[in-house]
Structures are given as structure tokens and as C-alpha cells.
Amino acid sequence: MVKTKIIATIGPASNNEKTLRKMIISGMDIVRLNFSHGTYREHEETIIKVRNLNKKMKRAVKIMQDLEGFRIRVGRLKTPIILKKRSVLYLTKEKITGKDNLVHLDYPGSFTVFRKGLYIFINDGKLVLQIKSATKNMLKTTVLTNGLLEGRKGVNIPGAKLHFSSITDKDKKDINFIIPHQPDYINQSFVRTAKDICRLRELVKPKLPHCKIFAKIESQQGLKNINDIIRAADGIIVARGDLGICVPIYKVPIIQKEIIKKCRLSNKPVAVATQMLESMTEEPIPTRAEVTDVANAIFDGANFVMLSNETAVGKHPSLAVEMMNKIIKYAEKYKTELDSFLA
Description:
Number of helices: 11
Strand content: 15-25%
Helix content: 25-40%
Number of strands: 17
Shape: globular
Structural class: alpha/beta
Strand order of the largest sheet: 1-2-3-13-14-15-16-17
Order of helices and strands: EHEHEEEEEEEEEEHEHEHHEHHEHEHH
């Protein structure tokens, strides 16, 4: 038995009984339902399958809802658009399905909050734009990286002072959907202050008193208020995807270690997420660097490690869980010895 638990995100690659069974056998402890994607019917089917497998296999795999939160996205596109470095791309409020250099951006407020010179990161920073001018309804940007722009990809604009509610209308609908299914965890995305957690707690705890509320740390405001957030939440998730965009990427390892240490001192569980075994989305084995990343999270004291694309859309979901389980077992075996060496 390992102490560190494996959270696996369920998606098209894993939402079938055969694969879920293999993942449970391989060591999956918690299924993560990402409400940024999928339909209520698909999520409900996953819950039913997992609960049925728990009965058949005499297991206790838990259910985790991951709320989308406030997220700016590129609009839907008829076909992906090839972006070329130094070309001009316009982002508009108009709900179009995309042209060669005109794409919908779904931020509801005035685009004038986006100052000239700010960088726009799309799809976890794979595509980068820079704002050249802004009007209420249109942004003129210059493309800084070559790449393929696909519809509904997430957008980050560090430095922009955005105005949004900590719990969106969609989040409220998603919470109302999940409550009858009695989840074990609900994750709140883009937590900025302890008040964000308190608002979610007011919605959830009266109906689900035993459900744990986890705060995802993925913004500069969240980092600034981390001590208060740790006190307010039942647990923390170090969400390295968006975190690695809002701060320089080379700072993420130290931030991860600092958050884990703070959680351990506060006796609060903490999870590490994003790209832990990312290459296994395509390949049957991970890179050496990824194996080391997972092991280091264990050495730091993480209580959970998370798989995202690897199990949601990857080619080898059960192999990814199996590999993570092997890394955990071996790392935990030597953690006490390592702690003594570093003391």
C-alpha cells in the first residue's frame, strides 16, 4: 500500500468500464471529472461505472469534481488556423467561427483592460501573441510563435486586471449537478483569496458536509494569499499549467516546494498536477525527467499526484497509472532514508 494517492482525469480515452477497471487495478485512487470538458451525461456515466466497479472489485475509488472557474477561451473554429510568426491576428467579441486573421475571444468585459504590450498565452503557452492595440471590442495582436490555433483553447493574459466572480454561473450549475452524486472532493479553479473558498464552502457544505474543498493555486493573487487560502481550504492543488504562465516558468519548482512545505506545516493535504507524465499521452513509457519529477513530488511530501491528458485523452491511460504507482512505491521506500540524509 502506498501513502501517496493517484488522481486520474477521465475523458474519451478512459470513460469505459474496461479501461477504468485496468486503471483501478493499476493503482488509481481518485477519478477527476474535469468540468471544463464533457457533458453531464458523460460525467454521470463515469460516476456510475466507477461506483459499480467499486462494488464489484471491493474498492473505494473516490470522485473528484474539478470546476472550470473563470476561464478566457478562444471561440469555436470551423477548422484550426495556422499562425505564423510576425503575422497579425485580431481577437474580437463577435461570435464568429474564425477567419484567417480574425478569431473570437470570449472575455465578457471591455477589451480595454488589456493594455498594449501585454502578452497573450494560448493553450498553456504553446502559442504567444503580443497586444499592439485595444478597443472595447477588438484586440490587434502580433503572433510571436508559429503554431496551430485550435478552438476553445484556454487563454492567459498575465498583468491584465480582470473582473470576474470567483464562482461563475456555470460553476453553480455544475455544483447543482454533482451534489446528488455525492462527490468526495470539489476543486475550485483560479482561487485568488480565502473568500473564494468560503463562498464555495457556503454552497457545498450544507448539502455535502463530508466533501473536501480543494483550492487550485494558479495565479499571482493565489500565491500572494497562499497562507490564508491554505487555512480556508481542506486541501491545495499546485496547478502548474496556468501557474507556469502567470510566473516565470523557472520559478515553478521552488513555488511547488514552498507550497508543499506550508501545507505540511498546516497539516493540509496537497496535490501536484500538470504534465507529470505528459509524454505518456503518446508514448508507452515516460521520459526520465518525468519520472524524476513525480519522485521529487513524493520526496517533497505531496499527498496526491495527478494525471491529466495522460489518462483523459492519451493512448495508454492504464499504463500511465501503473507507471506512476511504481514510481510512488519506489520513492516512498527510500523517502525516510532520504529525509535522514537531508536532515
